[in-house]
Each structure stands twice: as structure tokens, then as C-alpha cells.
């Protein structure tokens, strides 16, 4: 275990051993500023030595691995992060509720025209949230560790290298898919710039120019997403016209996997890397090479192992502590509930949980907020407040399992709880790995 250290001015220094931290605290030379990861701030001037600290990020749309390795191969920080997956659903709910509201008898509002085009750099909310989560996590980490370099893994495979092994230099840096705004280009890359119908309909000769074809034609409601698109030449595209795949080829349409994770990785390269650049110099590598490194170093398969391989320095020593961090939803600003009150006709008007913007309850002058980390002495466990009844609370562990005091009720009386500290959008649990 390591204790993270800040200097007198709040700037990060190298972490130290708990014994040293204990001594400093005892002598009144330092104070505790953060419980998890445990961080102290020195109260006296110390220039402190700093080493190069390299962060490896195994980026992902659901799980992220983070590892910090020093230049001499000491792994000083390890974390696995679970991201929220409910953004898309929430945005869709909001959209549906807004639409319903507009169609009710309401005041007249002039139509607006400033919302007909997406601004430059727009990303779907679910992806934007993920990119920002990566950035925020590293920004937070930079507050306790003197980060000098960041390395991110951006794609499972090296698209450019597969298609055109001879490109290098600036062309390679930018990528021929710069921006990746066009799904069409993506589909062409995915299908290797080959006409999908060339072998299925050899009676029609292929033309030189490539485009994409909708498997289910757009006129019949086919979507514009990659799973409905194949790379195809203009001749075959024109010949197919409004026909279904079956009519045109006499075969069942292929089942195309969802390639969103891959698309997400490309988003990372174009959006996240420039953002991280603001924190420290950032470089990116391809998953292909990570796998090889991991095998050579005899690392496992977890996201943290990946992150250590991505950091690029062979681990000589590893801290036995690792953190499981989970992104949670703390605030809610929706105007109204879809279901006013579960199972009842009347909306819940007076109960405390109805005031959604302040998710907290006060009992005997003690305030309990959403995602507070609490200790339950009866079962000797720590958990997080995940919800409220009128006067009691629900407690979950980091994996989302309810902690209960009785078999009958999930809710727990706050009298039984001891507040450890409060949380905002991330909850965190420390684990000791037995190596
Ligand atoms: Zn063709």
C-alpha cells in the first residue's frame, strides 16, 4: 500500500510508505486531505523528488483499466473503472417525455431554427459521456500523482497498417479517416474496399467507384448504421435499387456484428487524445502491440494488466492495492417522472424522496446523501447509499448487491450506519490483491 502525498501548495509529489505518512501525521507535519486513495498534504516546505510517472489507459466503452508506472518499473497505482451505461436510455426517455409534453395543450412556442444542425465536434451523448469520463478520471489522478506522460490504447487493430502497410510519417499520424465522421468511409474500411455483391451477382460487372449499400433499402425503413450497410460498387448499387437483399441475391442477408466498440475507439483517438494532451503529453498505441507486450511480460488478462502493458515499462514491483471505481448518477434534473409513483395512482407529493434535486434525508439532525460511503458495524461491511425510503436507506456494495441486515427488508435504519465520507459521481472501493 502507498500513501499519496501533496506538497504545501497542493501539488502532487511521489507517494510514500504508510509508516512514513503515519510519522508525519503524528508529528503534525502533514494533514489528511483525501480518504480514498489515502492522500496527505505536507504542511512544511519540501521540494521533494519526482520521478517520471507514466499512465497507461486501457480505454473502453464499459470498463477502463488504469495503471501508473514509474520510470524504474514500480507500479504505484492500479484501478479498474466501470462506466455508466444508462446515458442513451436516459436521453431517449427525456426525448419521449418532451415530445409528449409538446403535444399536450400548452402555450404556443414559435419554432426555432438554431437547432437544425449539429455543431462541429458533436458526439452522441453516450459516447461524449464516456470520453469525458476518461478525461475526468485522469484529471483527478493528476491531482495526486505527478503524471509526466499518458499512453492510451485506441484500437483493437491497426486499421491503417492492415490496409496500407507502407504509409508512415504524417499521413499515419493523422490517419486517412481523419474525423471519422462518415459512416460510409468506416463501412468501406470494414469491408476491405471490396464490392459485397461481386460474387453474389457475377452477371453484373463491377464498376470502379465504391459506395455503400443499404441491406434493407432506405425506402423500406433501413437505417444508416453500419450493421445495415455493406461496401458495394455503383453498378451493383444501381442494379439493386429498391430491392431487398433476398430479391437481389437469392440469399439471406448477412448478420453484421455491431461495430460500435471499434467506432468508439476511433472517437478516442480524435477526441480523447487531444483532451488528455492538456494534462500531460499523450501518445496512443494499438491493441495488437499491447497483447504482444502482455504475453512477453507474463501479465494476466484483466484491464489493469492491459493498462500496465500500455504504460510500456516492464513492472518490477507492484503495489498490492488496487481500486475498483464505479461511475454513478448523483444528480437528476428531469422535470417529471415517467412513473409518478410505483403502483399508485396518486403522485407522491410529500415524501422526502420526491424532491429529486436534493437526494438526501436528514434524520435526528444527521444528513444522509446519495452514494455516501458508510460502515455497517452489525455486519462489519462498507457500502454505499443507493436510495431512500422515508426514513431509511438502501445500501449497495460496489458491485451493486444490496447489503441487508434482515432477510425480509432491504432498507436499513440510518442509526446502524457510520458515515465514512461522501461521494459525487464516482464511488470507489479498495482491494488488496494477493500476488
Ligand atoms: Zn460490384
UniProtKB/TrEMBL annotation:
Superkingdom: Bacteria
Domain spans labelled HNH nuclease: 182-238
Region (Disordered): 335-357
Cross-referenced SMART domains: HNHc
Matches recorded under InterPro entries: HNH_5, HNH_nuc, NA-targeting_endonuclease, RNA-guided_IscB-like, RRXRR_dom
CDD domains: HNHc (cd00085)
Database matches in NCBIfam families: guided_IscB
Name the record gives this protein: HNH nuclease domain-containing protein
Lineage, opening ranks: Bacteria, Bacillati, Bacillota, Clostridia, Thermosediminibacterales
